[in-house]
Amino acid sequence: MIKIFLTTRYVDFLVASLTPAQRWQGAKRLRADVDVVRWFVLIGGSALVILSILFLIITVLRYIESHKFSKELFGEYCTRRGLSTRECQLLFRIANLAGLKRSGAIFTMSRAFDRQIDKLIDESLSVHGEDVSKQLRIELSILREKLGFKIRSSSSIGSSASKSKKMSSRNIPIDKKFLMRSLAKPELGEIEADIVKSSSMELEIKVGDGAESKVGEKWCVRCNFGASIWEFDTAVVSCNGSNWSLRHSNNIRFINRRTFPRVPVNRPAFITRFPFIYAHSKDFKRVVGDNDTERELPVSVEFMKPEFSSAVITELAGPGLKIDTSLDLKVGEKVLVIFNLEEKQIRRTVLKSEGELTKKDQGEDKYRKVITVITQVVRDIAEVRFVRKVENGFSVALELTGLTDSDVNELVRVTNASAIKSNDEKKDVSDNEENKKDKESGVVEKKVAQEV
Question: Average pLDDT in the 15-30 region?
Answer without folding.
Answer: 63
